[in-house]
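User: Before I run my own analysis I want an independent prediction to cross-check against. Here's the chain; please return only the structure tokens and, at the end, one sentence I can use as a sanity check.
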Amino acid sequence: MGEQRTLFVIFDGEPSHVIEPLLGPGLVPFYEDSVRILKVNRIRSDEVGPISSCNLHAEVITRQGGTLLRSYEATVGVSGSKCGKDEACHEQNLVRALQSFLDGFALAKSRGELGNEVLSEADLSAPFVVEASNSAILRVDAPKRGLYRTYMQMRMDQPDTLNAIELREAGNSLGDGHMVKLKHIPEAVVDEYWGLSDGSHAYVRWGKSFLRLERAGTEFFTSVPQPDTQDATAAALGGLFFGLIGGVVLSVATATSNPPIICDLDLLTGDLVPRSRDVDSSSYAQNIFLFTRYAKGAEFVTIQCELDDTTSLAKGQWTNFKFPPRSSPIKIEIKAATGSEVVQLDTNTDQVSVYLIDVKRDGELTVNELGEQMRNSVIRDLKGEDER
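Assistant: Structure tokens:
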């Protein structure tokens, strides 16, 4: 986290020290009957300039009479002051986000609005999928006109419609209504909204303006203009950027000649995520594998990743694996004619790791991770034409 880059943080296991004070005795084994289960599907904590944030999507699943029912699901988000290295600050944001989710659940329960969708045992560990059956915005050709105070209002196509809205094209719009501003509404009030709909398209707030979301099947995306340095500073101070897009935009804020950044809408959290692989993976962990020496009959090695295609390397060639963060390691298997070796890659970091692949004269295959000094020396000598 910081003003110029995004740092990913993954909770390794359940953050029970945060959740337990909220749920108290509600934390019981999920297989017991007549209990409610809190299933957190995604947590995204971020910090841009002086603003920190935490967005999460969660469900409440009820086991009743041997049947699993999805009682409630929602996305919530909170923001706060800069956390820096203060871990307690980020924990407080998570507590506030969880409390906001539980408050929403309590309100739905008091209104008799809890759901009763029947689930299978497999659904307890399966990812939650945003689709037409649970998201009204995916069932309509044109969303209802109005203002969205939250992302969930957009997803459920339930905008505030009490006040009529008038829109005008923003000065730095890409044209054709891509970026608009609200007329006759104070800027301080604009900050209270996640987005809006003009009756044809949904828009997501970007600073004091709103960016049109284009739809492609069941996905939404938009083009985010890259601001100049002054705008980027104002954005940070005003808390305009949240999620991954914040760090990306601020990091390239001085490059005013660059084209807009294409961002996809994360349908779980309502965040904008850069589509460009180069931009999106700029802070991912890098894992470089260099084939340095081979024995007769072992001119090539193959590298098989559980999340990627197989790569073949000849002597002197190298490859670089960059993965988004996850709580569990990623398995990499290196194979030669005489044997194989498995390496577990930790993605919960933004560091660079270098591994040397060596096949000795007797055919023994070894894969060794280098220390800092040797690592830096190898990186300096890598040639772009040898990358595979």
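Sanity check: Helices lie at 16-23, 87-110, 151-155, 187-190, 229-238, 244-251, 277-280, 372-381.
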